[in-house]
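Archive entry: two folds, one per protein. Generate the first.
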Amino acid sequence: MTQRTSHAAAARLAVLLGGAGVLHFVTPQFFDMQVPRALPGKARTYTQVSGIAELAVAGAVAVPATRRLGGGLAAALFIAVFPANIDMARRFVSNPKTSPVVKAAVLARLPLQIPLVTEALKVRRLS
């Protein structure tokens, strides 16, 4: 991978994380419903903290001096939220009121964490 390609990968990752971080504050209800019910406290607190984390990691990935650290943090963040994605999929699939299309979408979303983690690790490795 060339230096130019690694910059492009970092830019894509920064935009993805930054956009997701902003959405945590623009449409918090969507993220609140993803917070596992077993966690203590209010879902909104987790939504806001994870939004701040995504914005911070996006910034770290965007800045060349902190890109290596940012790539590692991005991979860790993607891994950390995966249990919540599994929990949400479990809840949606087990709910008879959830449409088959939504059930398929939440299940299809799960394997997408793999390329996110590998892309973040690639940014870390090449920075």
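Generate the second and append.
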Amino acid sequence: MKKSIVALAVSSAALASVSAYAAEDTSLDFYGNIQYAYTSDTADGTNFQDNGSTLGVKGESKVTDDITAFFKYELEFKADEQEERSNDDDNGTAYNESKLDQAYVGLKGSFGKVTVGTHDTIYNNALQDAVDQFEYLSISMASGSSQGDTITYFSPSMSGFEVQVALQTKGTDDSSTDNGDFTGNAGMAVLKYSNDLMSVAVGYDSRENTAEDDADATSGIAVTVTPMDNLSVTAKYETTEDTADYLGLAARYGYGMGDVYGSYANVNPDSSQDDNETYNEYALGVTYSINSSMYTYFEIGNYGSDVKDEGSHTTSVVGVTYVF
């Protein structure tokens, strides 16, 4: 018994020392948000719904004076209602299903940054986000690789230039295709240049591990000009081989208590497509900050098309988000 007590005391002291050491070089943060939206669509009616509420944890720790290890794990969940389990589950008990949004580990330092895991693709971040900038609505853009199973390298800024490369690997297990998954590797690359007035990004996504009938590469260029600290204007051109060309324009203005923003997209399908008529989409929005943690927004847009299956329709949305 005495030996057990002594062993327990030694173990506790060792763990305390490790915790104390870790506390000096490790940071850990919990964060999240709750998002609600009330939508009205001329085709689908009205709906109150969750708009992507998340809960996450992130942290980092020193490896050397120049290198830091870090991680992020984020789940997305529905905050608007409880869903009933199917009859195969326990007694029909109500529950709330969550799904992975982001999860990765990495190293950063003077060499740049390397991540392994799941997050928005470098192509999407560099070329598409500035135009598809909405809280709820969306604007058509070129197809890209899915998230996940990705190794990414971000270079440090070198006289305004940055290089980003990524490899998404789905392995070589052909049996996974029975579940809708696809095998093989897909490479992505982005070259960026930024100064005080403008930024330019050129990107390429090979999309080689998507479905065989949708494996055409996507490439594009985006230019953002910031003539004032609170105003940005973006122009974007993308093309997916044998699929469509996409022209996008966007502007965002910060008025003090929030932002006013709008985007326009022109979609020109390839002649090989069944629906190959050119069409336009547009959307406008405004946010208002209630305080540093909570804001509300209104958006309206026409982002369908008569030449697409869903038809042309107008959607408006009022939403609220609390960030913690």
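Annotation attached to the second fold: The helical segments are 2-25, 122-128. Confidence is low (pLDDT under 50) at residues 1-22.
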